[in-house]
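Suppose a colleague, Dr. K., hands you the sequence of a protein chain of 817 amino acids and asks what its three-dimensional shape might be. Before reaching for any lab equipment, you can write down a predicted structure in token form. Begin with the sequence itself:
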Amino acid sequence: MALPTASRRSARPLGMSLRAIVGFIGMSVVAGVLITVGVTPALALTGLATSNTIGMFQNLPGYLDVGQLMQRTNIYAGDGTTLLASVYDQNRVEVGWDDIAQTAKDAAVAGEDPRFYEHGGIDLQGTLRALAVTLSGDDLQGGSSITQQYVKNVLVQKAESITDEAERDEAYKEATDPTPERKLKEMRLAIGLEKESSKDDILLGYLNIALFGGTVYGIEAAANYYYGIPASALSTSQAAALIAIVNNPEKFRFDNPGDEVNGAANGYAETKERRDYILGEELKYAKITQEQHDAAVAEPITPNITQPSTGCATAGNAAYFCDYVLNVLRNDEVFGATDDERYQRIRQGGFDVVTTLDLDLQSTSQEALSAYVPATDTRFDVGATAASVQAGTGRVLSMVQNTRYSQDPEVIATSPDYSAINLNVDASMGGGSGVQTGSTFKVFTLAEWLRTGHTVNESFASPTSGFPSYSQKCNVSNDGYYAGSRFAPRNDVASENSESMTALAATTNSINTGFMGMAHELDLCDIRTTAESFGVHRADGTEPRNGPAFVLGTNEIAPLTMAVAYAGIANDGTTCSAVVIDRITDSSGAAVAVPSANCSSSVSADVAHGMQYAMQRVMTAGTGRQSDPDDGIEHIGKTGTTDDAADVWTAGASRAVSLAVWVGSINSLDGTGTKVSLRQLRITGDEGTVRASDARHVIFRPIMAAIDAKYGGDDFIDPPASMLASSSRSATVTTVPDVSGQTVEAATATLTAAGFSVGLNERVASTAVPAGSVVSTTPSADEEVLRGTVIPLQVSTGEAPLNTSDISDLNGDLLDQ
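The predicted structure, expressed as tokens, is then:
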């Protein structure tokens, strides 16, 4: 959002009429007379009340609402003292009277308004002298007192705070136009301000609001920027040099050593001339001695330019976390009803924002990540992230990725190790489109399995041939079942193939066919709903894919979202949304409402304990054992690997804190590049050379160890004995009866009597049996399977099946059914 700069100037209207000048002279003199006699109502207006000029002047607005100055918003780490970044439109730090050196106060009065403590808001001598300059042909001069300058700056400030661009420009023009009308309004407001405020308060306001070049406003920010010191420490020479700037901020600023007119080579000659004039005025009005004057004049201008922490790029390894904090603020209606209002208030409101960031954990996380997946590795385009969340509070303790942060398009275009995209978070919060989670998503099928009364040690069918249909009750267009092609995913290794298994075995070893067998006995829509109850959603904000494959983690989800979900599992099934802000205070020190964690029950504590039981086995005896720090703290976890190992994960938690680590192909994020199989790559880090697909383990382990050392973690609670029991059906194998040719009702009765459950019907084209009758079952008749297996029926439509051998496409190739 473009804002007008305080240094811009409106052009003086050509050919100012004599009438305008005469009118200005008359009004200015009247105003001066009023001030000269003290503006006492009885004396100043008696005998003059019949003057139209005085009446017009007195009818101008006489009250100025100073309002709040624009100040920078500071973002701090969780310790409340380490500054991560500042954001602002105007770099200003408002300070009190005692925080400004007397040298600066004396320089301001001597240089800008020597009779400041004597007049009532308008310096008559200065006004008449300025009018003489105006009549000589130069720009309109106002002879502005400090009070008048303060009034003008307040009006400019108010203009620049307006959100609407047209209104803002009009208000700015009204506050700065070199017209008699504007000057008279300024004078009237100055008189009113002098009645309401003390001289010291006006001088303090002036020193806090004045522009000191560029975006530097106020004496404190100026002292910080030009000299690297607080305003309370300014010497006589330094104070005079800074006050010199306010006379013409762009001309007298001394932060450009290469400037040919006012640069280091000539000792910042123009600034020095103005500074020495101010020092002379201080000597003239006995603010300094001759000795102090001579020493200050002899002192060269030697700036120590200290750039403020501007934007998140200055936050080091916390830059992406900082960017997320800003996005949280920009989306919080506490800061305004519209995007523009929130943007403006954050950049101008002077808030102190204390975040949840644990600096020690952040450093450990970045070191662990960069040790194996550095941003500068040019051999392959691989990304990595790690995010940790405190269970029970949702507080984000750390957030890192292997790229460097920048919002500069030129830097990003020329340096591939820089990125503006925060890979840990949703697209709406400055992130990307997310990444497939692979098997880390399987825990939500486990949750639904236990929630619906099944047990950890219950067996079920897990054929490698897959299943022809699944319950999908939210699919109203297809009578509540999934009717796509048969989904038969392969397992990672052939030794995992088994026609039946338990939920515990499927979870421990992350067996795809096992989870599809569990899903077959559940409902796909219910699995999705359970996942959503843990806060899981697609990173791009679209509806999640809900076919059978989603059970294995095909939806693109942000790593922080997975960390939040796993914190919910560790927190006995109560999930708290992510929060990154502990407290906010405004410029007055008053507390501001912060975005809070919304905590809600995802599953019952018993179900969560069952999940924890199985997920502990992953870390001690399953696919996650390489990630376990083995430090005496119990952990739950789940690994994940997507197709061709383009993305790999370890997500886990202690009872206290969760951690989600992702390593994957950056190119696969937007679908425009070639996916990299991490199994084909080798990377070398602190623990030697490992396959890139194993980097998740050597990253997760030291971060989790650091979490445990600081936050500890109690043992997980065992689930109720009933949840660990083996189902009675798991020990019984029986033969599937032949129900072909039977009606659906009769077939259902036959199968139920044999100890099976009947799944959703799949309609198939067949003339072998009448329409509505059963053609076959899956598994087929006479197969031996576990008693209790869900068996779908294939039901005839009565239509002849399509003979694909007689149909060719335009190229003569057989159509693919």
